[in-house]
Amino acid sequence: MTTRTAIATARIAAAALLLGAACRCRAATQAGATASNRTLRAYHIGNSLTFGVFPNDQTDKLFASRGGAYVRGMHILWGSPLSRIWDNPSSNNVTLAPFGTFSHALTQFDWDVLTLQPYASGITGDKGDLAECRNFIKLATRRSPGVQVYIYATWPPRPGTNAPDAFARTWDAQYTGQRTGGVPCRDYCQNLVQMLRRELPAVQNPVLLIPAGDVLYELDGMMRAGRVPGFTSVRDLYKDGIHLNATGNYAVKCTFYAVLFRQSPVGLPNAAQCEKVSDTVARIIQETVWNVVCANELTGCAPAEDAGTAAK
User: Fold this and answer.
1) Fewer Cβ atoms within 10 A, N terminus or C terminus of the chain?
2) CB distance 34 to 112 below 8 Å
3) Strand pairing partners for 44?
4) What pLDDT, on the 0 to 100 scale, is given for residue 52?
């Protein structure tokens, strides 16, 4: 199967699934963290865009604010795609005891969640994200066969133009092999998830998506419409060419919470966790995150019965 054929097949599969997405959502009962008073053990692999979600224990406290506990391990390699991380298992810029590097953590500890962050790569090829995600998943499931794997879909670089729809046009584009910092477009992330599901049919829990880029896309539209006080476009959520500022990272934290716990982030504390985010903006972000998460079957949060009805 050629790269173009594989991507086209994945795109068709993703479109069929997304037809069943619904904008209302309730906590799921299948794999994942659905109970408040439980411990969720999660290991995160990526670079500074993953570290931005978990720069300290404040995010852990945010996630545990409704009960339970969030136990976290990380393998972070600055500026690196998954292929470089896989090829350098002893290089970890952020080591959390007792878990350490991915080669130790995934083989010596049990995990409920594994998140993988694609970055500046292509889908196919020996060093593409499909092959590298497959490597990490196979390693993790030997010790933790029930681990829920998520692809952390980040965002493209900050638009280099002030054109109002610059971010939207980039994110809405189809993936045709383009590479960029972060991920190039929504299509890339959804294709990757679908291809992983096809290539790993024996995995206990199908790979899911954390749609951070989609949240930024939705916030961008609201900002350009004047519906987010103090913000004019998604450019206001970047602190440089690729990293987000405190408000942008708060939106990503809420997205992680909504997907991993399958619960609405509406009402989560904001000022105590991110003093730069006002109550008004925090509420808008929380509601937007929940709407986005519930509208995408690939997150594992959209109601399955609605998906089945809509697909008929």
Assistant:
1) C
2) no
3) 74, 115
4) 96
